[in-house]
Amino acid sequence: MNKKITCVVIDDEALARKLLTTYIEKIPYLELKGVFKNPIEAMPLVQTQTIDVLFLDIQMPQISGINFLKTLVQRPLVVFTTAYEKYAIEGFNLDVVDYLLKPFAFERFLQAVQKVTHRLSTVNASITAPIQTSTPTKNHILVKSEHRIHRLRYEDILYIQSMQAYVAYHTSKERILSLNTMKKLEEVLPKDQFIRIHKSYIIAKEKVELLEGNQVIIQDTKLPIGASYREMVLRELF
Predict the structure, then answer these.
(1) Does residue 52 contact residue 6 with C-beta atoms inside 8 Å?
(2) φ/ψ (deg, to 5) at 33
(3) Where is 117: in which H helix or E strand?
């Protein structure tokens, strides 16, 4: 590798910082630019220098790794390093490169670095490639359910239903339950394809067949329109 990959470690655990530093020093093409115990300390460096990858913890006292990542206008590639599996889905939705569950061995760390290397080479190739007439866009959402991760295409989703701590993704073939919130889904799903019609429902715009009173109909299923959403639904769909 001609160019070194610059990286930063952010973790509130001293042992984790030491381990990551040791692992990084074993790989000749990694260049460690800084080690920090919280995102606030790391912010000046991350915002002023070109950093290729962050090795970022999630649960930290001042600000979580996820919230810190959302504040960055120019995001480096990110590898989450955490002891908590429950954040995996949000990590995938934020397009992180990998998700390392503590404690992790050097071999697993090396796999993550290889993914970073591949992603960077892909980005560099796209920069030097001829300009295309159209830009490919993301066409799916990753949904974790029962220890599986489904690659669910937007075009297959009919509607999404809130079920307290869970949401149900309804397609013409199946229903998939997953831990998530409607608010987070509103942020992630493309607004030109999906619209929230009720506190408990997000629907695919193109799947709507009829408006009947205060309901929309999708494949013979009647879904209510909330009073506060009605004006927007009529404007967007009808």
Answers:
(1) yes
(2) -95, -25
(3) helix 106-128
Looking at residue 151, which CATH number applies to its domain?
2.40.50.1020
* Residue 31 belongs to some domain of the structure: yes
How far from chain centre, in Å, is Cα 218? 28
CB 7 within 8 A of CB 30: yes
**Tokens coding 39:** 């995102």
**Which of 101, 128, 155 is the last residue in one of the domains?**
128
What's the pLDDT tens digit per position in 71-101? 887 889 999 998 877 766 666 667 788 888 8
201, 217 in Cβ contact below 8 A? no
User: Residues with Cβ < 8 Å from 136, sequence gap 6 or more?
Assistant: none
User: What are the residues facing 94 on neighbouring strands?
Assistant: none
> Which of left, alpha, beta for 220 (phi over 0: left; psi -120 to 50: alpha)?
left
